[in-house]
Amino acid sequence: MTTLRTNQDLDPHRLREVFGIFPSGVVAVAALVDGAPVGLAASSFTSVSLDPPLVSFSIANASKTWPDLRRAAHLGVTILADHHSTVARQLAGAVSQRFDGLTVTATAEGAVTLDDGLAHFDTTIYREVPAGDHTIVLLRLHAVRPAGLSDPSPLVFHRSRFGRLQPG
């Protein structure tokens, strides 16, 4: 059995580079807060549980958006498609311009989803778990709607860049 050395370089820049080797999908998390859409892009989304139905994403503790977004009664989650790289950058950019030109739908409870996403989830916060410089947000699903596309292709975040899956 080989043991790992513990004196490796764990510099945050090096860690980000190594973590980036593993590709992930990208989602938009959004809601109406005080009558206006508030949202962000997250590349840490994953399914968690079928019973109860849970998904999660991680948010930096330094996020300026999360304190407002977490006040919403319901959160919408949209799985972004491979044509959404500009949208993902926009959702990570200037707060006042995050929804400029985007077509969205809001539920009666305030969950906001992008109309042309691959799938839409209506969720509520189930639990927040502190995890170092991030918080893991567990979301309980209340409704799920796939896009119904014949060949959906998700937006992929890999090595700090957006891309698409290559058919194999």
UniProtKB/TrEMBL annotation:
**Source taxon at top rank:** Bacteria
Is the keyword Oxidoreductase assigned to this protein? yes
Instruction: Tell me which stretches of the chain form a coiled coil.
Output: none
Alphabetically ordered keywords of this record = Oxidoreductase
Q: Which Pfam families match?
A: Flavin_Reduct (PF01613)
Question: InterPro entries under this entry?
Answer: Flavin_Rdtase-like_dom, NADH-dep_flavin_reductase, Split_barrel_FMN-bd
Q: Residues in domain Flavin reductase like? A: 19-164
Say yes or no: keyword Oxidoreductase present: yes
The family this protein is said to belong to: Belongs to the non-flavoprotein flavin reductase family.
Name used for this protein in its record: Flavin reductase family protein
Organism of this sequence: Phytohabitans maris
Q: What is the lineage of its organism?
A: Bacteria, Bacillati, Actinomycetota, Actinomycetes, Micromonosporales
